[in-house]
Amino acid sequence: MLTAPDAGPQRAAALLARSALEDDVCQRGFLAHAALKAGLPDSLKARAYNQLAWSEGFLQLALDTGSDYARRALEAAEQAGDLEQQAVALGRLAHLLAIRGQPDPGYLERAVTSGQVVTVDDRPQLMLGLHLMWRGDLEAAKTILEGQYAEAVRLADDSARPYLLVHLADLAVRRGSGNDLSRHVSERRRLAAYQHEYGGVLSNYVEALAAAYAGPAHQARESAEAGLTQATEQGVVPAQLRLRWVLGLANLLDADPRGAWAVLEPALTTMVEKGVGEPGFVPAVPDAVTALAALGDLPRAKQVAAMLDRSAAAGHRWAAPAQAYCKGLVLLAAGAPDAGATELIEARDSFESIGFKFDAARSTLEAGGALRRSGQRGAAHAMVSDAVRRFAAMGASAWAERAESELARAGGRRTGQTLTAGEEQVAALAAAGRTNREIAAQLFVSVATVEANLTRAYRKLGVSSRSQLTRLRTMAAE
User: Fold this and answer.
1) Quick check: bond before 9 cis, omega within 30?
2) Can you give the three-state secondary structure of 52-73, one letter per residue?
3) Alpha-carbon distance 465 to 77, whole Å?
4) What is the pLDDT along the chain (478 residues), one digit of tens a residue?
5) 315, 277 in Cβ contact below 8 A?
6) Secondary structure (DSSP) of 137-199
7) Do 175 and 138 touch, CB atoms closer than 8 A?
8) Are 94 and 113 in contact (CB under 8 A)?
9) d(C-alpha 418, C-alpha 421), whole Å
């Protein structure tokens, strides 16, 4: 193991270079500190402080410490006239402040306008796209993130593409775009396998996220648990938080609120302790309230829901509908289903207006449950039917199946001609010309499952071939 040298700029530079290659967060920080103690010129001092701003400030979420390191990096880079490290420091400072919930767009503007070319995780444009996504401006985020990916493709930057695809998968889930999610996950698998990277923390996160969205829940849990073990061993706190969130989402999909709260509670505790003030950074609060409301733990549900209050009051685009969603669930748990349904419908409309289709569909499902509990069975049936339709349209097939279970409780009755959500998805894709293998890849199911759903759809619709199915659906559309 390397230890702090007594002196020597060459030794210091070697320590700094070694630090950049370390996977272990603590060792990375130790080496950067050792390089600083050895005495570095301002240009390398800026690089060392920037590394610490990332390894301690971001990877360990020591946000105040990291912000201080980023400011020191900026000062050293300005003294050295190093424009590249100035851009890196500005971007990292902006990123850490945004996670605290104290965004300062001026730093990113300076970094973006500098025109410096930096590595992908330092790009101010990428950070701007992430901040927009967290705060609920999905279309602007989509433009930036897709632009960054297109640029990586143009430059044949295969080291940047898998990293960017993680963020694009996140965006696809929030937008409720199953087609985009499937495309991003498939492309990331291909690139990761080519680069012999598959099986790492980010791969497990993407696979878990996709399965928590489309199912099956057990696959989401397996990938999330594997990734969480790795992220914990490496000391990467943001990855731990995101994997706990996905694990909680998978447990909710599997109707296991107790299991969901068990993994979400440590994530929320860490975010509070670390001073994370941006609710969209890891959007776990609504899921935690969902779990607590299902468990009947009203005091803690209210306490967790209050974590959104400051951001919602400040005009945070996503926090406001998320707050209405949580309020609806708290009212429902308190025995006020009519008022709860009103809040949940408001949440649905607000989520829909800002493009969060997945959250809108989940709000619709919960509103249907509230209406059923208030005795409005007809309205409940219509509401849950809409949730089934929404989930099916966005490729969230496992959630559509869960909504169908609620539909049965709401008094829904299927006729022999009515397709399930899974059958509807497969039939629509088959009629559009997709092969069974292509359909299986898009929906994250086996080819056998596609064949079984298609067979049942043929029987219910009275057709016996893809061409007949296509003609039938074309006539229905007309």
Assistant:
1) no
2) HHHHHHHCCCCHHHHHHHHHHH
3) 67
4) 444 444 466 666 666 666 665 666 666 666 666 666 766 677 788 888 888 898 899 999 999 999 999 999 999 999 999 888 888 899 999 999 999 999 888 888 887 777 666 666 678 889 899 999 999 999 999 999 999 999 889 888 888 899 999 999 999 999 999 999 999 999 998 887 776 665 689 999 999 999 999 988 999 999 999 999 999 998 899 999 999 999 999 999 999 999 999 999 999 999 999 999 999 999 999 999 999 999 999 999 999 999 999 999 999 999 999 999 999 999 999 999 999 999 999 999 999 999 999 999 999 999 999 999 888 888 888 899 899 999 998 999 889 988 988 887 766 544 345 677 778 888 888 888 888 888 888 887 788 888 888 888 887 776 667 877 776 666 544 4
5) no
6) -HHHHHHHHHHHHHHHHHTT-TTTHHHHHHHHHHHHHHHT-HHHHHHHHHHHHHHHHHTT-TT
7) yes
8) no
9) 9
Q: What is the pTM of this model?
A: 0.82
- Token digits of residue 13: 């530079």
Please tell me the distance from the alpha carbon of residue 96 to that of residue 103, in angstroms, as a whole number: 8
Which 8-state DSSP code applies to residue 237? H
Q: Are 356 and 318 in contact, with CB atoms under 8 Å apart?
A: yes
The Cβ of residue 416 has, within 10 Å, a number of other Cβ atoms equal to 8
Location of structure tokens 């995780």: 121
